[in-house]
Amino acid sequence: MENWDLVIMGGGAAGLSAGIYAARSGLKTLIIEEKMSGGTTADAPTVENYPGFNRISGADLAEKMSTHCRKTGVTINEIETVTGLDLKLDRKIVRTTQTEYETKTVLVATGSHYRELGVPGEKEFRGRGVSYCGVCDGPLFKGKRVLVVGGGNSAAITTLYLSGIVSEVIVVHRRDTFRCEETLAKDVQSKPNVQVVWNAKIKEIKGEKSVNKVVLFDAKIDTAREVPVDAVFVQVGEAPNSQVAKDSGIEVNEEDYIKIDIFQRTNMQGVYAAGDVTNHPVKQIGTAVGQGITAALEAYSFIRRPYYRKEG
Ligand SMILES: Cc1cc2nc3c(=O)[nH]c(=O)nc-3n(C[C@H](O)[C@H](O)[C@H](O)COP(=O)(O)OP(=O)(O)OC[C@H]3O[C@@H](n4cnc5c(N)ncnc54)[C@H](O)[C@@H]3O)c2cc1C
Question: How large is the average pLDDT for residues 249-263?
């Protein structure tokens, strides 16, 4: 069985940043990635908020991160999925679709996935008007008319953020009241450029090169109509990719995000988590990078126990 100092589950921004720091610290490091390395960053059509790049495509940034990580000496196994973890002993076992690895430490950096509407046009126009992240893609629709789907906190926060950028926001919610905090609901309804359509659902997203309309079903009057919009922000929730971690005894919160302390430590010794899979409140490339770095340096401290390390 292959032996490693650090095995990282997931080759996104968090995992790759951790890899760079771990390898430069001298740790024998393996990243296991079920798809191609780069992670969700590669899905962002344009990234305009990652320091050092005014504007870069997500695919380019992901590629640069992967290449940088490989150059530091990290082994990246792509198209290999972690299916199980045995974390109780000092030598931990990572089971994958291909084999088993033994390692001193483990970092879970498996990210999360946005819940989809599951309507025609959603997949087709993803990245071409269909977005799951207002902070990321909102500025691309400056002065345009956009639609937000959802009624929880993330829908309300996204609506407030977009209302300061775009000309008009239409919020579509399947119930007749918001599920979000009361103050957020009040703020949303006080915005002059926000219109809320209650008891309604999106039936289809249409367009040519990019989104130009949706088919909206209004349950109150039992009719469907076409509404012209330039973008659809789907905010019906997201879920962490934490099942394998959870099954191995890593503690998660009520929404299944992995609980971490400020050193990215989980409840299991020598096991860390970083990025969108954790309960950190901000889910961005920059925060995933920072968390990955902290986790790698903490794994290094745990393994090497350098003289300056204070226990606790
Ligand atoms: C469309 C879109 C646009 C965005 N735009 C921006 C932006 O402009 N700016 C910004 O800062 N943020 C943006 N974000 C958010 C940003 O992409 C994420 O916050 C960040 O990429 C999270 O990094 P991560 O490493 O935690 O997770 P991810 O990048 O999701 O990486 C996790 C990786 O783990 C892999 N994995 C999962 N389970 C397993 C397993 N069992 N075994 C092996 N591998 C596994 C996945 O395949 C994935 O590659 C955007 C997100 C989306 C969806």
Answer: 97
Ligand 1 centre from 62 Cα, in Å? Answer: 10
Residue length, the chain? 312
Q: Taking all residues of the chain, what is their mean pLDDT, rounded to a whole number?
A: 95
The counts of H helices and E strands in the chain are: 7, 17
pLDDT (tens digit per residue) in 32-72: 999 999 999 998 778 889 999 999 999 999 999 999 999 99
Residue 2: strand pairing partners:
101
Mutation test of ligand 1: which of 33, 41, 278 has the most ligand atoms closer than 8 Å to its C-beta? Answer: 41
Q: What are the C-alpha distances in Å from 308 to residues 56, 115, 239, 301, 305? A: 39, 44, 38, 9, 8
HEC letters along 59-102: HHHHHHHHHHHHHCCCEEEECCCEEEEECCCCCEEEEECCCEEE
Quick check: 307 pLDDT over 70? no
Pair type for strands 112-114 and 238-240: antiparallel
